[in-house]
Write a structure and sequence with these properties.
By secondary structure, the chain is α/β, with parallel strands linked by helices. The chain has 16 helices and 25 strands. The structure holds malonyl-coenzyme A (MLC) and adenosine monophosphate (AMP).
């Protein structure tokens, strides 16, 4: 039996999920996910690693579908709820999903796509109207594939990162232990649920521990502070941009309201930041507001979390901490030799937390591991007094904005298909709020190009967070002697 399910069975009367003003116990979650798994099995028999793409809003329904897929033996493929159709279609095609599950808000969008592709379509609203008899669930072995999450990389198309149940259990259990999760915890989830930060660190760690997850449908600083003000939440995890936005909102409040928030925050057990570098200024301001030194940690879709500042002990500003238990980390030079103490090198990782493969991309999978099985992260770091500090990334084409990883090449490919654009180059420029801001230098066929219309055109083709925020129209892209665009020169233009 899955460890998450085993643990839940021990905590049946605890509150598992609070969403949409409703409280659901672990018993409710076990029953509802068993029911959904039974429905899937009715349709297909043992799912035998069938990819099930699902688009469901954050809350109880999301988790019961995710657990239902897992308990029926399927591979869960969460779809981002803010993706435009082409981005959804890419994930559905690339995973070769055989089933699509849609929450009520998304049925109209996805049903035609499923019909067109001949994929079985399940509307949650329809399932809920049925009476489903409980089926015996298959025994799920730890090495069965469990989930595919999409991540942008140094290729122009996102790759599916496959994890098994064993991987997920390793990723969750090291965090539960290191950060001392317990059944008395209650976390507020404001993160998107198609990435590890929300799925592993927030939901799965909480539910592994018998704790409670309270969901907000989407992030808003006001709603977050309102939820905190009720006094039940004691754990929070977010990307630096969210802390930046919370600070900005707090600063607009009258002093009395500020004080109330600060009093509430000072009673929290744990506050974590990650997915992008936490600016020291944000860490310091948050400390003044909340009395908490944010715990910064480092992770990646392919490894879950790898390096973390300590729960007990010094949390160093500007550092990501030390390897988590069970995660082996080394720094290597360009010849793949371990660097001398104090020297910078690429972070490489080994351990049960590391993903299985890029879905149906054996070459990319092979390229990302060394011959002796270390995963190459592409992040460069140095160790100082035992603490890792990130220096940057190998590739200028990978941008982190708002905690999302974005491939410059992917945006360039789309931009080049626009009839008024002859060539372009996309880069990330430093920005305190977003980490990096996506910007584009473009060569145009039509000097009268309407940038507002271009923006709209892009938003129909890619998620809003990937769309460039500034453009520079130029006559020629700067290139080196080899003809390669010199992206550092592009950065200087902004
Ligand atoms: C949105 N906007 C941006 C932007 N994203 N502007 C600049 N850069 C960006 N990246 C703009 C929108 O276009 C809109 O403007 C306005 O901001 C509000 O949009 P929104 O979508 O409502 O934004 P908001 O909800 O405020 O989003 C901010 C956020 C979100 C921080 C909540 O980006 C987020 O949820 N990020 C978390 C991503 C995450 O979970 N990453 C983890 C990956 S896993 P306009 O003008 O259009 O109205 C990983 C491993 C690990 O990294 O270590 O964890
Ligand atoms: P993703 O592919 O979305 O999982 O993003 C993983 C990447 O986020 C890593 O390779 C890092 O570049 C970055 N990242 C995660 N946590 C941190 C952190 N604490 N500091 C700096 N970068 C981080």
């Amino acid at each position: 039996m899955l460890q998450l399910v085993k643990n839940a069975s021990k905590n049946q009367e605890n509150q598992a999920i609070v969403s949409g003003n409703q409280v659901y116990t672990y018993r409710n979650l076990l029953e509802a996910s068993h029911e959904f798994a039974s429905y899937l099995l009715d349709q297909t028999g043992d799912l035998a690693e069938t990819r099930v793409a699902f688009m469901v809003s954050p809350g109880f329904d999301y988790v019961r579908v995710q657990w239902g897929i897992w308990r029926a033996g399927g591979v869960a493929v969460p779809l981002c709820i803010t993706y435009p159709l082409p981005s959804l279609q890419y994930v559905i095609d690339d995973t070769d999903a055989q089933i699509i599950v849609a929450g009520p808000e998304y049925a109209e969008l996805l049903a035609p796509l499923a019909t067109q592709k001949g994929i079985r379509f399940i509307s949650l609203a329809d399932v809920d109207a049925l009476s489903i008899s409980s089926k015996k669930l298959p025994n799920i072995l730890p090495d069965r594939r469990a989930m595919i999450l999409y991540t942008s990389g140094t290729t122009n198309l996102p790759k599916g990162v496959v994890t098994t149940h064993r991987t997920i259990e390793a990723q969750v259990s090291t965090l539960v232990k290191s950060w001392e999760w317990s059944a008395t915890d209650r976390i507020l989830c404001v993160l998107p649920l198609h990435h590890v930060h929300g799925i592993i660190n927030v939901i799965s760690c909480a539910l592994w521990s018998g704790a409670t997850v309270e969901f907000l449908p989407f992030f808003s600083a006001e709603a977050v502070f309102e939820a905190f003000a009720k006094g039940h939440i004691n754990v929070f995890m977010a990307v630096p941009t969210i802390y930046f936005k919370l600070i900005a909102y707090w600063e607009t409040l009258p002093q009395e309201a500020q004080q109330q928030i600060s009093d509430t925050l000072s009673r929290f057990r744990l506050m974590v930041s990650g997915s992008a570098a936490l600016p020291v200024s944000v860490m310091e301001k948050w400390k003044i507001i909340s009395s908490h030194t944010l715990l910064e940690r480092y992770g990646m879709t392919e490894i879950g979390m790898g390096i973390s500042n300590p729960y007990h002990g010094e949390r160093k500003a500007g550092y990501i901490g030390k390897p988590l238990p069970g995660v082996r980390v080394r720094l290597v030079d360009e010849n793949n030799q371990v660097v001398k103490a104090g020297q910078p090198g690429e972070i490489q990782v080994k351990g049960k937390n590391v993903f299985l493969e890029y879905w149906q991309r054996p070459e990319a999978t092979q390229k990302t591991f060394t011959d002796d099985g270390w995963f190459k992260t592409g992040d460069v770091a140095v160790v100082e007094k035992g603490y890792y500090r990130i220096l940057g990334r190998d590739s200028i084409d990978i941008i982190k904005s708002g905690g999302y990883k974005i491939s410059a090449l992917e945006i360039e490919e789309v931009l080049r298909t626009h009839p008024a654009i002859s060539d372009c180059s996309v880069v990330g420029i430093p920005n305190e709020e977003w980490g990096e801001l996506v910007v584009a230098a473009v060569m145009v066929k039509d000097p009268e190009i309407d940038l507002k219309a271009l923006n709209q055109w892009l938003r129909e083709r890619m998620p809003a967070y990937k769309v460039p925020r500034h453009y520079k129209i130029i006559d020629e892209l700067p290139r080196n002697a080899m003809g390669k665009v010199t992206k550092n020169d592009i950065k200087k233009m902004f």
